[in-house]
UniProtKB/TrEMBL annotation:
GO molecular function annotation: acyl-[acyl-carrier-protein]-UDP-N-acetylglucosamine O-acyltransferase activity
InterPro entries the UniProt entry points to: Lipid_A_LpxA, Trimer_LpxA-like_sf
Protein name, per record: Uncharacterized protein
Biological-process GO terms, alphabetical: lipid biosynthetic process
Highest taxon of source: Eukaryota
Length: 138
């Protein structure tokens, strides 16, 4: 009987450790990641200005645009047709979903912190016109 308990206890602790590790990694995907050299991926159809600053492990999808004063942190992801213009800085591990537009050539700059997700077709920091307040619209 004692020999069965000796075998069973290490197995149970292994199962608990593995299940906690899986649960923790679903809450925070950066936990328990293996340390490896981050390589960037830039799709051939993406347009990136030569003065743009891109961190390590950045993924740029098809038909994306990165302007001359843009700065992308490490591990950022740009889904297809997302754009960054003007004096804009994205922190580490930010995600721009499909069609998102961030920044404009307005005075000042836009700074977005780490671990943010900009949604599908969202527009951040771009001067928009509001047509409902236009005089003599009718």
């Amino acid at each position: 009987m004692n020999s069965l308990l000796k075998i069973r206890r290490p197995f149970c602790s292994f199962v608990v450790t593995v299940s906690l590790r899986r649960f923790s990694s679903t809450l925070n995907p950066h936990v328990f990641e293996e340390k490896r050299e981050a390589s960037s991926f830039i799709h051939p159809t993406a347009v990136i200005h030569q003065n743009a600053v891109i961190g390590q492990g950045v993924s740029v999808g098809s038909f994306c645009t990165i302007g001359s004063s843009a700065k992308l942190g490490n591990g950022c992801q740009m889904y297809p047709a997302s754009h960054i213009f003007g004096n804009t800085e994205l922190g580490d591990h930010c995600v721009l979903m499909t069609g998102a537009v961030v920044g404009d050539d307005l005075p000042g700059g836009i700074v977005i912190g780490c671990n943010n997700i900009i949604g599908h077709h969202a527009v951040v920091g771009v001067k928009c016109q509001d047509m409902k307040y236009k005089v003599n619209f009718y």
